Amino acid sequence: MKPKHDAEIPGVNMSELRLKGFRAHVLTNPPDLPVSLGRRDFYKMGLVTGDMMISYGDQVIETDGPVLFFINPKIPHGVLHRSKKRTGYSCLFTQSFFVGRERTALLKNSPLVRIGDPPHIALNHEQADFMAGIFKKIVSVCAGDYAHKAELVRSCIELILRESIRIQPPKDVPDFKNGSSRITHLFFDLLERQFPIERAGETLALRSAHDFAAALSVHVNYLNRAVKEITGKPTSVHIAERIVAEAKALLLYTDCTIAEIADALGFEYTTYFNNYFKRVTGATPTSFRK
After folding, report:
1. Cross-referenced Pfam families, in alphabetical order (predicted)?
2. Cis peptide bond prior to 66, omega within 30° of 0
């Protein structure tokens, strides 16, 4: 699928980022034009002092540093700097760069990936100084010719993520006190793994409570009872909300036709998708896109 926005990031050599898997730079005074809203194929985290507004998915977040911010490639985002002066650092890396069992688990539990947590952390001066030291090290290593720079950068990223979790622990840590909480967690994990839809011909495999129950090897009645017990909402509602959220992103941030989006989301006919979308949102896909 072709992104609607694929603008270069000011101050970033995008070819180098895609080749090496990581890139870091010192933030300069913001350009006149904001970074356009869209999805991108890398993670981004930074430390910034300055008045700015982040468009993140369907949220608008206003910050006044020092702030540590995290950008997930699955979620469309853009940045508007409202003050002419800013200081800070930015580090970008691809998912394939940050590999390994422990690092993958750390990434999944970090603000870069956690669903529902704010993508920014306000820092006090002591915390900001500590983070600035790590980012300075990353920038220095990236600019040097150290043979093992990639591994050193990974270690610095890991330290930033671990410190961010210490400063702002996850809001909802699954405790699995009973079978219902465990199966509900597995359901949401499986639901989220299907997104984003980004490649032509890619289609959702799981669209109903029966699909998810089969994938989890449980009876659909058990899955429905567990999800309703833990969340207060039926399984079908969570599935519908997530499919519609993805539909909104595809309508806003890609040039795909509505028929292509309907097909990618598993609807046999475009009219089925139109009716589904309107039933959940109150608007047709065409009116929403406009």
Report:
1. HTH_18
2. yes
Q: Phi and psi of 46, rounded to 5°? A: -155, 165
Cβ count within 10 A of residue 95: 15
Q: Looking at the structure, give the CATH architecture of the domain made up of residues 179-289.
A: Orthogonal Bundle (1.10)
> E-assigned strands of the chain?
22-26, 35-38, 43-49, 51-56, 59-64, 67-71, 77-81, 87-93, 120-122
Binned average pLDDT, 10 residues per bin, the chain of 290 residues: 49 60 78 48 82 68 82 66 73 81 77 73 92 94 86 92 86 64 86 72 83 92 93 92 88 85 90 93 91
Q: What are phi and psi of 168, to 5 degrees?
A: -130, 90
- Sequence ranges of the domains in the chain: 14-167, 179-289
Phi, psi of 67 (to 5 degrees): -135, 140
